[in-house]
Amino acid sequence: MTSDRMPFALLNFAGSSWWWIALLAVAVLAPLAWYALKPGEQQRGSFAVGLGLRLLGIGLLLLCLLDPQWLSPRAKQGANIVAVLADNSQGMTITDRPDQPHRGDRLRTQLMAPTTSWWEDLNAEFQVRPYLFDDELQRVGDFGSLDFTGPRSDLGHALSRVRERFAQQPLAGVLLFTDGNATDLTLDTMDLTGLPPVYPVVVGEPADLRDVRIAHTTLRQTAFDDAPVSLRAAVAGRNLADEPLTVTVRPLNASDAEPPIEVSTRFANSDDSQDVDFDWRPRGAGIQFYEVNAGATSNDALPEATEANNRRYVMVDRGRPIYRVLYVGGRPNWEFKFLNRALREDPQLDLVGLLRLARREPKFEFRGRAGESSNPLYRGFVDATDDTARYDEPVLTRINTRDAEELRSGFPRTPEVLFAYDAIILDDVEADFFTPDQQMLLRRFAAERGGGLLMLGGVDTLASGDYQDTPLAAALPIYLDRRGGRQPAGQLTWDLTREGWLEPWARVRAVETDEQDRLTAMPPFLIANGISATKPGATVLASLRDEAGQTFPGLVAQRFGAGRVGVLAVGDLWRWGLAGAVEQMDLARFWRQVARWLVTEVPTPVTLRIAPTESGAGTRMTVIARDEDYLPLDLAQVRITITRAGFNEGVTETAQFSSVTLEAEPVIDAPGRYQTEFIGREAGGYLAEVEVTDVAGRLIGRAEAGWVNDPVAEEFASLDPNPTLLAELARRTGGELLSFSDLDDLTARLVQAPAPITETQARSLWHNGWVFVLVLICFVAEWAWRRWKGLA
Predict the structure, then answer these.
(1) pLDDT tier at 6 (50, 70, 90 boundaries)?
(2) b vs e for 354-390, b when ≥16 Cβ sit within 10 Å of the residue's Cβ?
(3) Distance between CA 61 and CA 63 in Å, rounded?
(4) What is the CA radius of gyration of the chain?
(5) Angle between the 334-344 and 581-599 helix axes, to the nearest 10 degrees?
(6) How many beta carbons lie within 10 A of that of residue 526, not counting itself?
């Protein structure tokens, strides 16, 4: 019979047709027993006890005449399946005690010993299916292939695969051998729907082990000029009190790798943890991988339980080799001089300048000819009609251009030209400098292209430049039509707001006290635009205080569409650099950090995004392809080359690599998106480089992204077994937490436990010796009672 739930046991009388004989015997034997023990007047109490014992014995004998049988369901022999899962991960190589083999050897002994009677009993009653699991579930013929080399203990994934494989089969239970240190399952993430009873067997025991491990790492990349990369490594230790440790960060794949960074520390207590901080500026650009390693400084230190958890891999994205920043100045001033000098020191920032030297009026007037509209200064040049400057055109100059054609026609008029830049800085230039189409193009540059836009203060900018009725006003983080009556007066003092203190790119010093001293010594400014209201989504990072005590926003930023927009209300920031050599260095650092903030997260025509798959076993790579107008690009050929930064123990040279090339397929209902998946099992850093070409074979762009696969670090995150997780797993599925000593009784428990296919087992009670022992006890007790009380 097949049932979802085991029925209760029942009592059945197989000889029920003999009931009338039993009833007749009671009618005859009961009076005879009373007559044989007929008491005197003073022995009625003793008589009742003796009569009761005799009648009980007679009743038990007559009950056997009816053949009572105990009917109980049991798992049908050979009809149900029991899946046996053995943990084959590296975590099973932990040795709990020096005088014992490691956990894996103990498990192998239980599963492979020729005298394992429980295994034979289990096979006699059930169909046993053996499996190994680590990062995958593997069916095996026996457990001879246990080698404990798996990088992970994906217990949740293994149970899910068992549920899928036996969805339509009579799976009675899962016998699970593991230490409970699952890498993909916690008490909060258990999805046990549809699983049969799970019987975990705890392998291992808590022990006093020596170990140092890197619990986790936190990487933070900032626009801070001196140290744009900050790494915090949480180092934990066991039984390492007062022992010196060395924590090292070394590059894996940098061709011009700098020497490793080392920090020494020690634990104050036996079980302690410390956060070790690293701040450095990596060389070069692009994706870089680093290895963080912690270990004992002394060579004479006692061995650890494992060294596999002593290291972690981290990835640093240094961005593209070059970010292009366009500076548009409305008049010659010193701001561009300091900005150009500052960004020249950053090899990843390329500043291009477009400066207006004169407005529409010519500086000199010469006697012209009738009908001549061009400047007479250009008379006599070849083909001067098209190239000479007109009287009604501004005089512009280009600085740091890539070639002779860049910005030759002035400010860009098409998206493909303007969108080639990553950030734009507008300095003291009025709205009429741009055509309405160019103003809309600037707005699209931030909203659609995702670029960074910064407007500086001055005489002809913001509300003074009549931007309030332009498309660009919607992108700014301030309201231009709410000027009010307040205007800055006199000298202006710069200070950071609470939000500004939290943004590394808005500060210049890394230490708060040093930054406070710098702000105090900072020279005052004389030119600023009075900002009376900021938009709800904007963040005020710095403020300006005038001589009258009025406070105005000095630096305001906000997200706008896919990009970011900022307003720096000061019009003479260059005064900061004139105060001295130190202040000039501070100003240069501030400009570099602002430029870094502008270009951070600016997308390119080709963007590669990395995310884990739903199962967590692989990596999904999504490519977003755009054309020159940053519109989705369809029918493209997308080729992704994946390179692994491997690592050989004991080798100090740059890491070796292995690679594979994949084709990404278009995503349905998502124009311009292409996807593919990759499973990398080896530890290390993975670099994915994508190349996109259109239908004509023209290169659209390249991009890169990376991720870190560090399964061993997660595998050895905990050395002690986790019986709490296993006990909860057993409780939620209706199983039971077991130990090796419980295996001898395992088959009997499973036979009586609920099973998909059951049969009824009938056991006659009179076949049990305890029934006849009880009858004998009744008659002997009755005889002894009569002798003691002097009854007949």
Answers:
(1) very low
(2) bbbeeeeebeeeeeeeeeeebbbeeeeeeeeeeebbe
(3) 5
(4) 42
(5) 80
(6) 13
**Which residues make beta-bridge pairs with 234?**
216, 275
Give the amino acid at 20: W
- CATH number of the 323-365+389-481+555-599 domain: 3.40.50.880
Cα(559)–Cα(549) distance, rounded to whole angstroms?
Answer: 30
Q: How far apart are CA 389 and CA 401, in angstroms?
A: 20
The predicted structure's pLDDT at residue 148: 93
Res 762: pLDDT: 60
In this structure, are residues 475 and 462 in contact, taking their beta carbons and an 8 Å threshold? no
Pairing label, strands 127-133, 137-139:
antiparallel
The CATH H-level (homologous superfamily) assignment of domain 211-317 is Immunoglobulins (2.60.40.10)
Mean pLDDT confidence for 776-788 = 74
Range from 16-25, 324-333, 397-406, 496-505 carrying the lowest mean pLDDT? 16-25
At 230, which amino acid appears? S
Q: For residue 204, what are the contacts with CB-CB under 8 A and spacing of at least 6?
A: 94, 96, 103, 106, 179, 720, 721
Least confident of 33-42, 297-306, 614-623: 33-42
- Looking at per-residue pLDDT, the higher value among 608 and 296 belongs to 608
Beta-strand runs (E) in 134-204: 137-139, 171-178, 198-202
The DSSP element (H or E) to which 762 belongs, if any, is strand 758-764
Cα separations in angstroms, 216 against 310, 436, 639: 11, 52, 33
419-437: pLDDT as tens digits: 999 999 999 999 999 999 9
Topology of 606-712 in CATH? Immunoglobulin-like (2.60.40)
Question: Distances in Å between the alpha carbon of 278 and those of 216, 253, 287, 425?
Answer: 14, 19, 18, 33
- Given its phi and psi angles, is residue 672 left (phi above 0), alpha (psi -120 to 50 degrees) or beta? left
Distance from C-alpha of 303 to C-alpha of 664, rounded to nearest angstrom: 47
pLDDT tens readout for residues 227-280? 678 899 999 888 877 788 899 998 887 555 567 788 888 877 777 788 999 988
- Looking from the CA of 144 toward its CB, the CA atoms found within 13 Å total 3
- Residue scoring higher pLDDT (138 or 299): 138
How far apart CA 623 and CA 625 sit, in angstroms, is: 6
CATH architecture group of domain 81-206+720-748: 3-Layer(aba) Sandwich (3.40)
